[in-house]
Amino acid sequence: MQAKPSFFLSLLYGAVLFLSSAAALVLEIVAGRLLAPYVGMSLYTWTAIISVVLAGLTIGHWIGGRLAEGALPPATARRRAGIALALAALSSVAALPLLRLGAAPLLAVGIHPVTAIVTLSAGLFLLPSLFAGIVSPILTKLAVDADPTHTGRTIGRMYALGAAGSILGTLAGGYVFISLIGSVGTVLSVAGLYTALALALLAGQRRAFVALLGGLVVTATALAAIPQALASPCAVESDYYCLRVEDFSGQSGRDSAVLVLDHLGHGINDRAQPTLFHSSYLHFSDEMAARRFGRDRLDAFFIGGGAYTLPRAWSQSFRQPHLHVAEIDPQVTRIAQDRLWLAPDAKGVIVDHHDARLALQSLPRLPQFDVVFGDAFHDIGIPPHLVTREFHAEIAARLKPGGFYAINVIEARHEPRFLFALLQTLAHDFAAVEVWVDGDEMAQGERITYLVLASDRASDTPVLRSNRFFSRHWLRLRNDQVRAKVQEARVPDLTDDFSPVDRLMAHVLLAPEIGEK
């Protein structure tokens, strides 16, 4: 007669462990999206988040083991696990207002970027992970006590359920919840799940059950009184970015807007005049294309769409444009059409919602483009597979004679190691590799936008001057000096096998005077 209660108790403990482990990993995945609008997404962000969550779980497991020691009455053990889950729910919800109210002041202090990332990660996500970690040892002890004749089997089952829950949480967080209900909704769902599990464990313990319900009412009332604490900075949360569009009219004096991906502006569009370029590197690419090919026909491939500023402009300014845009995120295209004045039927624009490398390789390997334009770099977030020699060979094979590959690289004024590695790698497949800079930017700060041009022939001028709208000029750095600097830097070639982009770009993030936005 005792087997039936033992079975149902074991089922309860296993289910709670499985679901709480899933919730902890969902929160780990959503942590990256929550931090992205403030510190961006990089290797440093994910390293901090994963380390903090693992640290919290580790401490929690140790505390939970201490709480599960001895001949503990089952009701007491369930109450302790239920309280831990309730605290996990509370601390998960608290991360939202803490982030909204605390991130900006912390970053404004000017502390080291990595310190800021680790501080935010620890301050927001250590406690939820710690409280979730407490639950596992207690539930495992309860499961063993409920079925003492199969101790080893029970321990193995509980470990397996915890691991399986973690797998489910990782998949659900990354593939379902964030794009379906957003980061705020995901955090609230995690908190709701923790709360439901806590109530399940506290069933039959009237005082603890009522106390938890009272805490829920107080928490909900506090959140309702501060609605901005739950407001998301994202207009749209896609599988790739936190997207929003901000008005730029105050800075431009015209009806214009800027697309922000995570924490950085990624293109400024003018409503009435698509060919007005606020970004110098786009203006340079437009002037260079017109100089080499005129304004009649242009065949171009875009590695990334961004705000679609250049495709939108070239659709209007060239008589026969063929503009193939490989933009991996459909939401970027949608927001450009809805809020950045990209016409869905823009002349000559073909949108390909795939990774740019896959999209390019799906096309015939023969000369077909005048320009390949790289706009997938996201500050220091550079996709390694888009800067390798193998990818450059694919680009070179599809450029017409005289065509060029243009890439903008945000780097340090002194010792730009990633830039040097990129130039060295490009030189294997392109006869002419040039570095251009905006003449006005040469004397400003430690952070420069370098304009890299790779082609089968050199440009016919060392200075390019704009012909319309903003008065700008760009200078080509001397090739012999650039080659000497590259040789001195002793940087590696970037290949599919070895493309250490994050290490080569580390100085941009680690030096505040370079990395400040």
Automatic annotation (TrEMBL):
Keyword Transmembrane helix: yes
UniProt key word RNA-binding: no
Protein name stated in the entry: Spermidine synthase
Source organism superkingdom: Bacteria
Alphabetically ordered keywords of this record: Membrane, Polyamine biosynthesis, Transmembrane, Transmembrane helix
A GO MF term: thermospermine synthase activity
GO biological process: polyamine biosynthetic process
Gene3D superfamilies on file: Vaccinia Virus protein VP39
Upper taxonomic lineage: Bacteria, Pseudomonadati, Pseudomonadota, Alphaproteobacteria, Rhodospirillales
TM regions (residue ranges): 43-63, 83-108, 114-139, 159-178, 184-202, 209-230
PANTHER family: THERMOSPERMINE SYNTHASE ACAULIS5
Organism name: Magnetospirillum gryphiswaldense
